[in-house]
Amino acid sequence: EIVMTQSPATLSVSPGERATLSCRASQSVSSNLAWYQQKPGQAPRLLIYGASTRATGIPARFSGSGSGTEFTLTISSLQSEDFAVYYCQQYNNWPKTFGQGTKVEIK
Amino acid sequence: EVQLVESGGGLVKPGGSLRLSCAASGFTFSSYSMNWVRQAPGKGLEWVSSISSSSSYIYYADSVKGRFTISRDNAKNSLYLQMNSLRAEDTAVYYCARAQYYYGSGKEAETDYWGQGTLVTVSS
Question: Out of A39, A105, B42, B68, which residue is the most buried by the measure of CB atoms under 10 Å away?
Answer without folding.
Answer: B68
